[in-house]
Each structure stands twice: as structure tokens, then as C-alpha cells.
Amino acid sequence: MDGTAHAAPAAAPREGRRPRDLRADVFRGLALWFIFIDHIPDNWLGHATLRNAALCDATEVFVLLAGYAGGIAYGATLDRDGWLFAAAQVVRRVGSLYVAHIVLFVMFTAQVGYSAAALEGAIYIDELHLDAFGEQPYRALLEALLLRFQPAFLNILPLYVLLLLQFAVVLPLLRRPRLLLGLSLALYAATRLLGLELPTWTGGGWFFNPGAWQLLFVIGALIGYRPPGGAGAPLRLPWRRWAGWLAAAWLSLGFALLFLAWHRPDLGQAAPRWFVALLTEVDKTGLHPFRLISVLALTYLLAHAVPAGTPWLRGALARPFLLMGQQGLPVFCSGILFSFFGRLALEYNDRVIMQVAVNAAGLFCLASVAWLSGWYKQRERARRMQPEPIPPGRPA
Asked: I want to staple 313 with a disulfide (CB 3.0 to 4.6 A). Which of 22, 30, 65, 98 is the partner?
């Protein structure tokens, strides 16, 4: 999200720090809402999310922006305090993500299991790949702790954990962007060409193959990192009209593929067979190059179309997404639980009123979680900054 040709600073830096890029927060919040929407079957609003308009979806946006934020935060720590301290900060973040994942696993399993038992004949257990937990609960808990048991919807945080652990190791290579990008590309190519994968307990590999998805994270980190001295990002994205046209053309091609294959299959039958067949090859597990190019093309256009100081980023309409993007972890975890409640509601009644109520309530609840989390962190930060009171009788 460089936007060097158009962007202006959002605010003056404080204490030498870079101003926060509100674009990243807003678009991350929007991606989290899309994830909530897409996790609800038969949600009409799901037809308006990114996955129906491009050969990528909110997951790619989430990972790219995670890398972008990591490049900003941990890159600055690397330059200020050195590799060891920066890596320690990354590992501490990994610990928070790991604990959040385990708590979410327990809560989601209890939520789905209770619902399946209460609604006789419900297929939630099999559909969400929790049947192994019912058959071997103790072994399933152990495998969940080892990140080798990943039911549906519980596979993004394990990916994030591994990406950050890898990032802690390669942090110094942010200063050598060509080498880091080359190594990342080599791992991506080897993963796809050789079929490398991490095994899971229930068979097969991880739904999100870390060997492939790390490339998107690394690209985001290189875009976000700024070397000392105020130099530009190692991976610069200056505006070029020809590049903008190429990005727009690529996204248009992706939309045409989706339109012919999903929205108007009757027209797709008249298109060349090879054209529509392309869509069947675009896998998400290994981050197919089409998906990678699509999210990068979208990022390129948005980074230049939306300057960093755009007023609407601080406006009322963007406010819920801004809060959600700034508190991504609690919002993501609560969104997984809320989306299942939304599914139950739409299975009971999927008419227009319920559709509107589910999506509006979901956005309100996610924004409320974000506000509460932000409010608590702000109060806790203010409390730590206050001087300790002097006990009576002790000289000041």
C-alpha cells in the first residue's frame, strides 16, 4: 500500500514513528466483515463480497495486510532495537495468536456440538470437519494443540502463527529485499511444483499451505517496511498508467471467468472450453498464481486510488471498519462464532428481513467487539503511563 504517487501523510509522525496507515485498517476491517459474511451459507450478501468479483477473496487481503502491518511494526523495532528484541516481539505475538486459536477451537467445537445435538439431524459436525473430535476427543485436543487438527473456519490462525514464526527468522532480510523476495519466490515455486505440504491429523495437508502463502505475507512486509533515514519501501509501487491498465485488465478477466462459470453458466457454455476451464485450476490451498496476481492488482489500484489522507477514512461510514481493522484478532475470533449464530438464524428463516437483520447485527457486534477491545487497551495504556501514587508518610 505504498501509493507513492498520490498519497499524503495521514498525520504528523509522533516521536519519529510513521503515521498509521488508515487505509490498511479500513480494508482489513472490511475483509474481516467479508469473512463473516462468507462463512454463513445462503447469505444473500455473500454475492457482493470480493470472492464473487475477483479471483481472490478476503483471506488474501487479510494475509497481505498482516504482512504489511508486520513490516511496519517489527521492521521499525528491528532498526531501533535489533534482531533479537524484534524477534522476541514477534514470538510474543505468536503466543497471543496461539492462545486465541486454542480458545476459539474449544468455543467453536462446543458451539457446533451443542447445536448439532439440539437440532437432531443437523450435519454441522461432518460439514465442519469436527467428526474426528467426536470419535477421538482426547487425541483431537492434542492434535489441535499441535495445529494438526484444523476444522473448517479454524485454519487461518494456524497459518498466521507459522507465517509469523518464519518472519521472526528472516526479519534481518527486510534490509536485503531482493534476497528475501527471491527466497520467498523459490519456496513458493518449490511448494507448488513439488507438492510440498504440512500434513494434518485427519489426512491431507493444511487447507492454507504455508509454503505458498508466505509469499503474500513477505510481499506485504516488504511494502510496509521503511529503512532508517526515511527512505522509501524496498518494494516500491509507483504509479504507472500502463501498470494500472494491466491491473484493471487482469481483474476484468477474473470477473469474466467468474461471471461465465458461476453467475451465467448458460453463457459460459458458449465460451471456449479452455476459457472457462481455467477457473477449475485456480486452487486456494496453494495460492494459485492467478489468485496472487489478482490480490496484488487490486492492491495496486486501491493504493493509488485511495490516498492515505483521504478524509472519508475517518468518516462515519468507515468508522466501524477502521475499528475492526485495528482490533483484528478479537474481531476475527468473535466473527467465527457470530457467523455460526447467523447460519442458525438463516436456517430458521431466510427471508429478506432476517437476511438484513443477520448482516446488520453481525456488523454491529463485530464493531462493538472492536470498540470494547480498543477502549480497554487505551485505558490500560493510560493506567500504565500514570505515575504510582506515593503512600502517606513517604517523602516525595
From this structure: 22
